[in-house]
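Q: Can someone sanity-check these two? First one:
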Amino acid sequence: MADKTPIKMLHDRVLVEVDKEAGERRSTGGIVIPATAAMGARRLAWARVVAVGPHARAVQKDDRVLFEPDDKSEVEVHGELYVVMRERDVHAVAADRVGDDATGLYL
């Protein structure tokens, strides 16, 4: 098999790359909170969309999406770690093109 085999996502599947800085957080007081710290509540994560299947309607390549990391399926491609999920598992999309439907929140 070739080293750089192309990948095509099927149906409504979305391939995302989790933000590197999403692991650690810094409190307002400057304390570093590691990703392994249990918060008691589920924490959502941001990721960049790398590829989408032909039936994905609200998500496009290079969008930033908010999703539940506990429900993820990880896959390694060419030494990089990605997450595969269904479009319905995306909670929010952050992109310039959604400006008309915006909620007033900006990243």
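And here is the second, same format, sequence then tokens:
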Amino acid sequence: MIQLVETIKESIQEKKGCNIVVADLTKIEGTICQYFVICTGNSPTQVEAIAESIGDMVREKLGEKPAHVVGLENAQWVAMDYTDVLVHIFLPDVRDYYDLEHLWEDAPLTRIPDLD
């Protein structure tokens, strides 16, 4: 599980995704998964590139594919479902609007520093 989250984080950073937050939901009862990984891409093209990078790197390193991927048609908010890990890739204004971090504010949040 931690290896999946790490691989997702690396693949986001490879495409210069920013503001990465990992929400640890493992101690919260009744959640739909164990981890949320949330990040921002600055354009629909970058959001798509991040999603593609995650799919490729997770498949190559861990042999896993997402159960579902939604949002690629307009690439403002792409959600990738790896069963125990949900990945959300947002455009900045869409991320601000939905503010997922605050939905899970009782979960420990780890903010990953941007690489640049």
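A (reply): Looked at the second one. The helical segments are 2-14, 44-62, 92-98, 100-103. The longest helix spans residues 44-62.
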